[in-house]
Amino acid sequence: MQNCNISQSLTRVASDSSERTALISSGLFGTAKWTFAEMERNASAYAHGLAAHGISRGTRVMLMVKPSMEFLCLTFALFKIGAVVILIDPGMGYRNLLRSISQVRPEAFIGIPKAHLFKLFYPQPFQTVKKNFLVVSGISIFSRGMKKIADYSKGDFPCVASRKDDLAAIIFTTGSTGPPKGVQYTHGVFQAQLTLIREHYGITEADVDQPAFPLFGLFTIALGACAVLPRMDAARPAQVDPGKFIKTIIEHKVTYSFGSPAIWNVISRYCLKKDIILASLKKILMAGAPVSGELIRRVSQVLPPDAEIHTPYGATECLPITSMTGSMILSETWELTKAGKGACVGRPLPGIEMRIIETVEGSITDWRNAVVLPDGEIGEIVVKGDVVTHAYDRNEKENAVAKIPDSGSFRHRIGDVGYFDAAGRLWFCGRKAHRVMTGEGIMYTIPCEALFNEHPKVFRSALVGIGKPGFQEPVLIAEPFSSPSDPDRLIAELAAIAKGHSLTKSIRKIMLHPSFPVDIRHNAKIFREKLAVWAEEQMK
Fold it and tell me: Could you tell me the domains of the chain?
């Protein structure tokens, strides 16, 4: 049996390039660096210690540790053991957090003091936890502090043999269209993602990455590149301190970086204001929400001429599945997006098969029952490939809806709607759950909102429906860049835009909102359900 354990990636790099720097972390007390050999040594020491304290293959371990050497090495250690790593964004809100913990039923808990305090205050969801481990900086006085139990005397920890379908991790969705769901990641899915990222984006051992999303630090190190941990709160990306983020890019000659559009919006504005060019950057990956041409153009102004922006598309359940460069968006599709054609996200990546099917509610019990639509028709986006995860954890109801059986395999309904053009490019039109179903027909969020987002005073907009599907009243909500001096005039100007386009002529109600509710992970996905409730209350 071929061993697909994802931790082997670190072991191989540590063997081939032991003294190269793997991780750089800048903090209040200076900069710390670890080589690949040191990362492997730490991961093995953690694995020996955890195994001696009862963590074994299949043990469900919740990891609540901030981005750090400990976070990365503990994750690799758990992969080595064959345990299942549970990762949940603490910023999803304590109600969603508690619901998610109850759902996955962790058997062990590794966390920083703040996480243990949270567990103490809300013990109910943690009833299944039998073993607790503390991660603290400095000297630990606790018997199960990770520094106490880490065993460096036994050398390398031989990672357990794992098949491609063996469970490696559970990672939660953002919950932008309902309660967050735990997605099962297998060792095979991680391996497929590594291969696709390496080959499509050309990541090499010479690269230095500054990931704004902690999980991508794992991919960076597994790919043999160096990861620089930025000084920022990963749970609040839009509140990034641009000076600190840029300082480490320049200081460590970072060559590529992954982050949400919200982060690069802040960084690009700061760089332009300070006349800064990020000369070492060759690639920027922006994902998590549609990326505007205006942002691409602005970010390009702070990069060297040979740099490129990439906009991978996918979801927690399947990433990446398409990708497009910023230069292609600006030269080929952005004008069409502004005209209401949707957001072009590129062609399917190698090994990815995608179809557009007729949108239906509920489950589809067999792929032969799905109606595949021709190019140009909007429908549900369905995907198949090695990077597509197999199931939601302990959630058969959602599995029945999201997965379509297909001759011994399956296809995943991504929850988005869109269409293919004649050139084979996918155009994203929004979330299926966000369609506004009026008596005059279906309205899609992304094409409609693009028309209003062109107004110079509008930061972003959201189309929501009020009432029963099939008879909903469309409402356009706009978030201005700043509080308008004449809100009635702005509303009137937006109403004129609505009347001037066939896509939006049925919109008769327009509202202004000071600050949209958005997801924590990317600070870019709009919680339209919450805005719909708000709008309905305003209309009473």
Answer: 8-187 (3.40.50.12780), 354-430 (2.30.38.10), 435-538 (3.30.300.30)
